[in-house]
Design a protein that fits this description.
alpha/beta, Rossmann fold, six-stranded parallel sheet, globular, seven-stranded parallel sheet, 2 domains
Length: 386
């Protein structure tokens, strides 16, 4: 089968969840299918490295740069047309013409769109199509409203309402719809949302596996540190959780690791809080810490960082919000907290009880191995497309 895959980002390097999901879908779909890739690009990316990483899996690779002027123009156009601003952000008439040409030349049997922000390009095409909602953007934006500065609240409220409407409308344009988790599916505002197929993420357990390193940090939190839910998580960790832990463990050391750190993330740096920015091999950050924590208060979808940490046999602490998608057993495979006090208690307990920490790490490791596999997940997607 010839599949045209449309993405809103070049899926390499793998520092963001949508890139990781897209890359692995491409990798495993390519085993039985001919892949043509078209990816919008709005940032500085080493295209040569990206091309080399993707070339083994794609028959044709097309990267399309959108300029800041194009972004501004199309966001304004979306604003006045009543569309979500992020669909405008990633839309370009020139890109649409290029996609139309590729469709005309390659005659794909199926079109796969990752995220609703890219759906405008092909929603009217009379070709079998699959949409990967991945996350529920409307809910993610709604959760950001409360913690955002007052001057952003009106824009976020507007975007929330438009996304809610768009997630419902776009549903009927696609033959198949997929999403990462059942809790996310329940948030899609469409009466036939049960038809959305759950295709979970996986983790590369050949890459993310236990490695022995000297423990330099007590806690590590990883991710794209320009992503608002992660920025919020960092501030919650360093400003509310850690001060409580320090009453018992004054020298506790924290590692914040990940690309594009926001100024708020950089601002929490101190003698015992290290902020790395981009790292070449994130496994080193996991391996050098005793505990992994993902204190997610906002956002939706499955946290890949939790899968990676568990696969490396690091005991994990996270929120009910994050675990709703993960579905690990609280107290056995993961520790769950919501308030700063709960998180602090879990941290102190695991640091003081190595045997229990090792037990949770082992259970989490086995949980991931048994439940999260990219190849099996992509087989489910492929069956849907046939």
């Amino acid at each position: 089968m010839k599949i045209l895959i449309l993405l809103s980002r070049i899926p390499y390097p793998l520092e963001k969840g949508d890139k990781l999901r897209a890359f692995n879908h491409i990798k495993y779909l390519s085993k039985n299918n001919k892949i043509t890739l078209f990816a919008i690009n709005d940032s500085k990316v080493n295209k040569e490295k990206a091309f080399q990483a993707l070339q083994p899996y794609c028959r044709s690779i097309n990267f399309f740069d959108i300029s800041k002027f194009s972004i501004l123009f199309n966001v304004l156009l979306a604003f006045f047309n009543g569309k979500p601003l992020q669909t405008g952000y990633f839309f370009s008439r020139r890109a649409k013409k290029r996609i139309n040409k590729i469709i005309s030349e390659t005659k794909p049997d199926h079109i796969f769109c990752q995220l609703i922000r890219i759906a405008e390009y092909v929603k009217d095409k009379n070709i079998p199509k699959t949409l990967d909602y991945q996350d529920v953007f409307s809910k993610g934006v709604e959760r950001r409203i409360h913690s955002s500065p007052f001057y952003l609240k009106p824009f976020l409220k507007l975007e929330y309402k438009r996304l809610l409407k768009y997630e419902n409308e776009i549903f009927d344009y696609f033959d198949n719809k997929i999403i990462i988790s059942e809790p996310d599916r329940e948030l899609i505002p469409h009466p036939e949302k049960d038809k959305i197929v759950i295709v979970m993420n996986g983790v590369d357990t050949d890459f993310f596996k236990p490695i022995n390193r000297k423990k330099k940090y007590d806690i590590v939190f990883t991710g794209n540190m320009g992503y608002p839910p992660n920025v919020n998580g960092v501030e919650f960790l360093v400003k509310q959780i850690i001060p409580i832990v320090r009453r018992n463990k004054p020298e506790i050391k924290v590692l914040i690791a990940g690309a594009n750190p926001d100024r708020k993330v950089i601002a929490v740096k101190s003698k015992n809080v290290h902020v790395t920015g981009w790292v070449e091999d994130i496994r080193e950050c996991y391996a050098k810490a005793r505990i992994f924590i993902a204190p997610m208060q906002i956002g939706t979808g499955l946290q890949n960082k939790l899968l990676e940490a568990m696969a490396m046999k690091i005991p994990c602490i996270s929120s009910h919000l994050a675990n709703n998608a993960l579905n690990a057993k609280s107290g056995k495979e993961i520790k769950i907290g919501d308030s700063a006090e709960e998180y602090a208690q879990h941290i102190i307990y695991l640091l003081d009880n190595k045997d229990k920490a090792d037990e949770i790490a082992l259970n989490g490791y086995n949980f991931v191995l048994n439940n999260y596999n990219w190849e099996k997940a992509t087989e489910k997607l492929e069956e849907l497309m046939l």
